[in-house]
Amino acid sequence: MTALAIHAPAVYRAGWFTQTGQVLRRWLISTFRQVWGPVMSLLRAGDLDRAVRPGLPVARGAAAVRGSGYIAYLVPGILMMTVLYSGAWAGTGYIDDIGSGVMDQYLSSPIRRSAIITGQLVGKLIINLAQSLIVLGIGALAGARYPGGIGGMLLALAVATVLATIFCCCSTAVALISRSQIALISLSQMIVLPATFLSTTMMPAALMPSWVQAVSRWNPMTWAVELGRGGLSGSLPDGAWWQAGGLVLLAALAFWWAVRALRSYQRSI
């Protein structure tokens, strides 16, 4: 009696980069179908000229830096604000996926969990990079000058990308843990507003109350703004290296938290 050998067909599993690329492709298509979201976030950049009108608190507080051009001073702050607000809403896509069943399809497929997070993150960072370039262009049209040149602009864009990574990943983790749009929106507002106004986004630390100065010194938003401002002006602030290192460390921790939150979500269903 002859034994028949049955050979199971080889199962092909795409590599991590291929998986990430497919997730990225899906998010980019979704973004282009609803392009109004990124466009609306750019409306904040249109406030560059209005922010320095006489009588506004920002304009009064900026008097000390008018000699060097407050528009140039404000551009890095608007740049970081744009990526901050965009990043804080990154988790809404995951909540939509949970409600529509797309997340269940992801988790039932042989795709690495880190690829799911990375693909969406890279998509958000591409959009943020485009927004950042537009902000720098609007700033130049409004009269800002960038003595740091191309290198300084690249540094500012890199810092904005790291800051966006932090808030995109944190928003993703909160979305996967809470699974609620209301909770995500509430927590985002509780974070982004203090992060903005307790920083040097709008005015120098010397013009702030002492307790705000103390808080802003340890605010990642301040680190990002000061690094971006230093890059565009061609003069990095004291402590630039530890500020940059702190942002990179926070980005790594936020990414780890997002992946862990996805795995925790999978175990809970």
UniProtKB/TrEMBL annotation:
Protein's cellular compartments: Cell membrane; Membrane
Family assignment from sequence similarity: Belongs to the ABC-2 integral membrane protein family.
Membrane-crossing residue ranges in chain numbering: 150-178, 190-212, 240-259
The ABC transmembrane type-2 domain, residue ranges: 29-268
Membrane topology reported for the UniProt record: Multi-pass membrane protein
The protein's name: Transport permease protein
Highest taxon listed in the record's lineage: Bacteria
UniProt keyword annotation of Membrane present: yes
Main location per the UniProt record: membrane
